[in-house]
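Exam revision sheet. Question 4 asks you to relate a sequence to its structure. Input first:
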Amino acid sequence: MTRGEAPRGGVAGTVAVVSAAREVGLKRGEFELAVHLGLVRATVERSRGGFRVGRGEIDRLRAEPGFPDGLRARVRTAGRTEAAQLLAISPDRFTGLARAGCVAPITFGLNRYRAICWLYLVDDLVRFRAAHPELLTGRTSDEVRTLLGTGVDWRVRNWRESRINRLLDRTDDPWARTAVLAETLDTAQVAEIVDDPYERAYLRRVRPEPVFGPSWSPVTRETAARLMAADDPDEILWRRLNLTMELDRAREARPAPRPGNDDHPRPEAGEGGPVREPVRDPEAGPEPVPGLLDRLGLRGRVTARRHTGRRRNRT
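Answer key, structure tokens:
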């Protein structure tokens, strides 16, 4: 059982996501978002076609005060125009705040021109409005204007980090966590770090399936896969560091299956010891793993993170 999933015992059967969504009064996309946010516990049953929801979990949701409006409100999203109206600012000003990293998108859609349309949790917007009224009136702050003047756009990176963290939160297994981090780099960089082809094959097998997105179109899923890849040298560096550290932990926990020894069970929560968060800040302290920078060929290239003035309100 992974973190955020329903217990295996004590649940009288499970139902598919579509049926579960119908029973709690949500659209499928809304229900997937609820699972993604940890509001609903789900299990992965590959033999039965992906995610399943326990009958006990459905009963729990239906028994919550304010059901179903309360649950529906927690997964309500807003696009650019509606978000700007909620904050009582112009759409252009809202886009600037989002590009500067003041608010982070939770998901996205594609319009008929296949352009990305970011969506934001309404709850996040309400909290941002209460916490930072000074950013919503008068002239745009010097800090935000300076960031925007550099052409910065933190929307993709904030979305990517949120999605990665949600996937990491769903498992304690170090190989599954390594697989999540491997998704943030291209195949050539992954091969440099995970130099064993059997380990790379194992990562593909144990990679946690994304809860949020199965209802997307093939084009949208392809876009999401592209957006998951780090595209800035600064971020690529730290994704490589994180991947290397988690790979070391996975190797310490257990070896990847080899030919003739392919009977390793799929990972369950709790294997490999307690969860240790990846490095998130290059200024957090000394090198976390001896010789790590030398192994990556990055000795002398580590500098302070750019855009130190960035606001990151994950409300």
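Marking note for examiners. Residues 79 and 119 are 5 Å apart (CA to CA).
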